[in-house]
């Protein structure tokens, strides 16, 4: 007890910041959600959620635990991709997935009960902290890669200006100059 002006005042407790106390890592969440959204690779024509074995291998590679129900994973992935895509409205998918609330150093923390739950918890953390709005889908028809917009004003359009952005700008330039000639 500390006395200030003859009044008893409790000393301020020194607590670690909440994010550090529960070890939340938004970069890890971003990487996980982007990897999940990119399980369909248009450029290579690879669908990693075609069968249960590929889904289980994808989850095992990331240490996510039990992977089941590949159909739900694909449906949720497609819905999430539509939600961050700039060219349309998300499908009318409404679903629930089991997650747990665990106390870590007395602080409530969401955790997944399986691999898909872990991905959804990471996505929920991004949505609740304002990071979700920075996840975008490259508009190039032969790419459609999910990426995180780290630009200050959130104006990035392409996954890569060197590849997709350059290709689109060159295409646009050719169209403008062939029609004017």
From TrEMBL:
Domain of life: Bacteria
Transmembrane segments: none
Name this polypeptide is given: CGNR zinc finger domain-containing protein
Pfam families noted in UniProt: ABATE, zf-CGNR
Domain Zinc finger CGNR positions: 134-177
UniProt xrefs under InterPro entries: ABATE (IPR010852), ABATE_dom_sf (IPR023286), Znf_CGNR (IPR021005)
SUPFAM superfamilies with a match to the protein in the record: Jann2411-like
């Amino acid at each position: 007890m500390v006395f200030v002006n003859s009044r008893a005042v409790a000393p301020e407790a020194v607590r670690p910041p909440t994010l550090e106390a529960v070890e939340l890592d938004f970069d890890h969440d971003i990487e996980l959600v982007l990897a999940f959204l990119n399980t369909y690779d248009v450029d290579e024509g690879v669908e990693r959620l075609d069968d249960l074995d590929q889904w289980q291998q994808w989850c095992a590679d990331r240490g996510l635990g039990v992977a089941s129900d590949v159909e739900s994973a694909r449906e949720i992935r497609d819905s999430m991709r539509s939600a961050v895509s700039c060219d349309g409205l998300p499908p009318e998918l409404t679903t629930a997935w089991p997650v747990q609330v665990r106390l870590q150093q007395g602080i409530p923390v969401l955790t997944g009960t399986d691999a898909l739950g872990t991905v959804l918890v990471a996505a929920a953390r991004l949505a609740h902290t304002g990071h979700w709005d920075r996840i975008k889908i490259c508009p190039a028809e032969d790419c459609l890669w999910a990426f995180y917009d780290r630009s200050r004003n959130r104006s990035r359009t392409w996954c890569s200006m060197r590849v997709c952005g350059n290709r689109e700008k060159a295409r646009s330039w050719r169209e403008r100059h062939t029609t004017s000639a």
